[in-house]
Write a structure and sequence with these properties.
Blueprint: E1 4-10, E2 15-23, E3 51-55, E4 64-66, E5 72-76, E6 89-90, E7 94-105, E8 116-122, H1 132-135, E9 136-140, E10 143-144, E11 152-154, E12 159-167, E13 175-185, E14 203-210, E15 213-221, E16 226-237, E17 240-249, E18 253-262, H2 274-277, E19 279-291, E20 299-309, H3 310-314, E21 338-344, E22 349-353, E23 355-360, E24 364-371, E25 377-382, E26 386-394, E27 397-399, E28 404-412, E29 418-426, E30 429-438, E31 443-450, E32 456-462, E33 465-473, H4 532-554
Parallel strand pairs: 2-6, 27-33
Antiparallel strand pairs: 1-2, 1-5, 2-13, 3-7, 4-5, 7-12, 8-11, 8-13, 9-10, 9-12, 14-15, 15-18, 16-17, 17-20, 18-19, 19-25, 20-24, 21-22, 21-25, 23-24, 26-28, 28-31, 29-30, 29-32, 32-33
């Protein structure tokens, strides 16, 4: 396997050799190694002779060992007797090794009790294509100590741990070496003419322990210049990633960076509020920038690149926010409708950040926003935010089968228009549905008629909002027709003469009641109500009476 080995040789005069090897596997941690002290010369204001170098007693101290020339050598390859097998750093990657060796200012070797400044210089190897100043960075507590302007200050008898950062970007697999020199200076002495100041390149060391996390260090960030770092494609939500972050420091400094994404809110801050912003959240991320100089260095002009895949644009899977739901979720995203938001902890509110589409490909779109520093960010989508603003019921009392009108005023607080699917209920039973279009930032009035075929009292609601109480009354019941008791009359009833037992009874029909015939008959009813059969009987009776009267009169009188 191709690999590039890293070897550091520290000679008795605090100078040495750097050897770098790249490989496709990460460096393994090692046990502590042997100890050796190296003391350089003391020449006037030069305090290098009062330094002591030794391997660190931590796991990475095993990279430092004493070679056959009694020099401290730091090697990341098979030449290191403390490493089993071949080792190397990843190609096209940044690798940081903390706590490899220590440097101590031994004040017992001098009468000068003032602090000293310490730094490391190393030159380029003419046998390689990559300048070591672009490949290797010496660090202490994560901060570069290369060049006099990036020095480390040590008090008398103070010890500092030294680490290494290897940036193999652009380096071919194989062996790369570099000479280096450790310098120390008493601050009371002026800088000598032959003391060169090393200008170091900004370098990066980032890892991604999880798909949603990227963390690392930016070494030697230039003050006043924009530094953009690869964000490890931090996953915010499926199909949405944070691709890069950029910032500017007020002065040269080393900055620790931590980026984290999540589909849900990451902190105790409130989630993106659709009612207040008009947007539905896709996901969230946080970005932390910690300069090693602390408050002495400010981080400004923060910018982020967010990528949204074509698949996510086609199927966003976002439910419409608000109290009234759309018939269906948002089915497609317009890239122009996606923007970033930052949470303002002072006002406890989300602020819309200016967002632009900087690149569009078949794979998706890349969005960029120039933002201030916020504790948490949200990726939001313009969406309809529908709600029932006002309702009325007219009238409140109706008869069965008589309509009542329900009026609903719908408001859309969102940044996109939408269709509201209203459901009208009476005592929790659905009685009507309707769909109403409401433009973004507007109101729409809709009416629905309700008709009931059963009397009762009904609680009317629309999408859970109370409308009012509707009373449905039964129709009025009509009075039955009045009837008169029948009277008994005889022929010639005009003289109101009571009838005798010998007279047949005649019962006329009530004056206001139509005559009804219970059984059919063959007779013909006269207008007066006396039929032919009864008339014949009366005539016969009259003949008998007249005949009897005649015979009585003809009888002889005595």
């Amino acid at each position: 396997m191709d690999r590039t080995h890293f070897v550091l040789l520290a000679a008795a005069l605090a100078s040495g050799l750097v050897v770098v090897a790249t490989a496709g596997a990460p460096i393994d941690a090692l046990a502590s190694g042997d100890r050796i002290d190296v003391i350089g010369p003391d020449d006037g204001g030069d305090a290098t002779g009062h330094l002591e170098l030794e391997p660190h007693d931590g796991p990475n101290g095993k990279y430092a060992f004493v070679n056959d020339d009694d020099e401290i050598e730091i090697a990341i390859d098979a030449s290191n007797p403390n490493i089993d097998g071949e080792r190397g750093v990843n190609v096209e990657a940044g690798t940081t090794i903390h706590d490899v060796f220590t440097v101590t200012y031994n004040a017992s070797t001098t009468e000068n009790d003032t602090p000293v400044t310490v730094w490391i210089e190393h030159g380029d190897d003419p046998d390689t294509d990559v300048a070591e100043s672009e490949l290797l960075t010496f660090t202490s507590d994560g901060k570069s100590i290369e060049g006099e302007n990036a020095n480390l200050t040590l008090s008398p008898n103070e010890t500092a741990s030294i680490g290494l950062h290897v940036d193999s970007t652009g380096a071919d697999p194989g062996l790369v070496t570099s000479n280096f020199t450790i310098r120390a200076q008493f601050p009371t002495e002026p800088e000598t003419d032959d003391r060169a100041v090393t200008t170091t390149r900004t370098s990066f060391s980032f890892t991604s322990p999880a798909p949603t996390l990227c963390e690392g260090t930016v070494y030697n960030a230039r003050g006043g210049e924009t530094t953009r770092v690869d964000a490890c494609s931090v996953e915010i939500v499926d199909g949405v990633t944070l691709e890069s972050a950029a910032f500017t420091t007020s002065s040269d400094d080393t900055v620790d960076v931590r980026l984290e994404g999540s589909p849900t809110q990451l902190s105790d801050r409130p989630a993106l509020d659709p009612a207040g912003t008009g947007a539905a959240p896709l996901g969230y991320f946080t970005a932390e920038f910690e300069p090693h100089a602390g408050d002495a260095t400010s981080v400004t002009d923060v910018s982020y690149d967010v990528f949204v895949s074509s698949e996510r644009l086609a199927t966003p899977g976002i439910e419409t926010p608000g109290t009234v739901r759309n018939p269906d979720p948002i089915d497609e995203l317009d890239p122009a409708s996606i923007r970033l938001y930052g949470f303002d902890p002072v006002n406890e509110s989300w602020i819309s950040l200016e967002t632009e589409v900087v690149e569009t490909t078949d794979e998706g779109v890349l969005l960029r926003t120039d933002a201030g520093r916020f504790p948490v960010y949200a990726v939001g989508v313009d969406a309809p935010v529908l709600r029932v603003e006002e309702t009325s019921l007219d009238p409140s009392t109706v008869a069965v089968d008589e309509p009542a009108t329900v009026t609903v005023t719908l408001a859309n607080d969102g940044l996109a228009g939408g269709d509201a699917n209203l459901t009208l209920r009476a005592n929790e039973t659905v009685i009507a549905t309707t769909t109403v279009a409401v433009p973004a930032g507007n109101r729409t009035v809709a009416t629905v008629e309700a008709v009931f075929d059963e009397p009762g009292v009904y609680e009317i609601t629309v999408d859970g909002e109370a409308v009012g109480e509707l009373t449905v009354e039964a129709p009025p019941i009509g009075d039955p027709p009045e009837t008169e008791e029948p009277s008994v009359t005889t022929p010639g009833a005009a003289d109101s003469t009571p009838s005798t037992p010998d007279d047949p009874e005649v019962t006329p029909e009530p004056e206001d009641t139509p005559a009804e015939i219970d059984e059919p008959f063959d007779g013909i009813e006269e207008p007066a109500g006396i039929d032919l059969e009864r008339t014949v009987g009366l005539v016969s009776l009259l003949v008998i009476v007249l005949a009897t009267t005649y015979l009585v009169r003809r009888m002889p009188r005595r």
